[in-house]
Design brief:
With 278 residues, the protein is mainly β. It has two helices and 17 strands. It has helices at 207-212, 272-277; strands at 3-5, 17-19, 34-37, 60-63, 73-81, 90-95, 100-104, 114-117, 128-130, 139-141, 143-144, 151-153, 161-167, 170-174, 180-184, 188-191, 268-270.
């Protein structure tokens, strides 16, 4: 997928790019699998901001994605569609019982492709197979953390996970962050990688585009008054010497470890921070 640039007819369009929607085969989603979601106002019943930098945004028609495609389903891809609720493309499939589902579209998936979900299935793009039956070294996505719970890892555009090893009832996978993690060998995963891999190269271009996405402006703490932020005030904006980065409430950030006493630490073989130091 390529990135499409706008003609610089206005200052806002200069440098702005967008996704190439040529792979999308229809603009009309399935109404029964669509839900309307308005932008979050991020305020409480007193009108006070409870979540910073969020609010307004365009109304979105989110598609209901089936992250837990049950084993035994054989389906055919009917359409490749756009979903405003995620960066990845989605595929509309029709199973052998005549039911429709939305799933994440794998890179290279086309209309007419066959999709199978089973404990044992061919290792081909888009098929959903148990980790115990996937060869080591295979690229996968939409991986379950717990069998039967549905895909939780590897769901954004261009994401892929590598199956490193299998031993007894445990499989080791390497996430895009570099973290190596243990999961059950009975967990299901899809073969391939998520499509729309050029999503990260899109340039927003202007502030109004961010507002339509439901993202409000972000102001630097050092540009505020000392009454409004822990890093505010000072002489001429040079900041406070020796003051570590903090939140508006004085909590240290940018380096402070917040993951403590987590019961899932035992499943992490190598953390993402350790992977960056290598």
């Amino acid at each position: 997928m390529a990135i499409r640039a706008y003609n610089p007819t206005t200052p806002g369009l200069r440098g702005m790019t967008t996704q190439d929607f040529s792979t999308i085969t229809t603009k009309k989603p399935l109404r029964s699998l669509t839900v309307i979601r308005k932008g979050a106002v991020a305020r409480n019943n007193q009108g006070r901001i409870t979540t910073r930098h969020r609010g307004a945004g365009a109304r979105r028609y989110h598609r209901i994605i089936n992250f837990n495609l049950q084993p035994g389903i054989e389906a055919k891809v009917e359409q490749i569609e756009y979903d405003p609720g995620r960066s990845a493309r989605i595929a509309r499939i029709k199973d052998n019982a005549g039911n429709y589902h939305y799933i994440l579209a794998a890179k290279g998936m086309r209309v007419g492709s066959k999709v199978t979900s089973a404990e044992e299935a061919p290792i081909t793009r888009g098929n959903r197979v148990a980790l115990r039956n996937i060869p080591t070294g295979t690229t996968i996505y939409a991986v379950e953390l717990q069998p039967g719970r549905g895909a939780q890892l590897g769901r954004s555009a261009g994401t892929s996970i590598q199956l490193l090893a299998k031993e007894n009832e445990i499989a080791q996978i390497r996430l895009p962050s570099g973290e190596i993690r243990r999961v059950s060998i009975n967990a299901m995963a899809s073969i391939g990688e998520v499509g729309n891999d050029q999503h990260q190269n899109v340039k927003i271009g202007k502030a109004g585009r961010k507002r339509r996405m439901g993202i409000r402006p972000t102001v630097r703490g050092t540009a505020m008054n000392s009454a409004d932020h822990g890093m505010g005030g000072g002489d001429g904006g040079r900041g406070k010497p020796g003051r570590p980065p903090v939140t508006p409430w004085g909590q240290q950030t940018l380096g402070l470890k917040t993951r403590r006493r987590k019961s899932t630490n035992k499943y992490i073989v190598r953390s993402r921070s350790q992977a960056k130091r290598r």
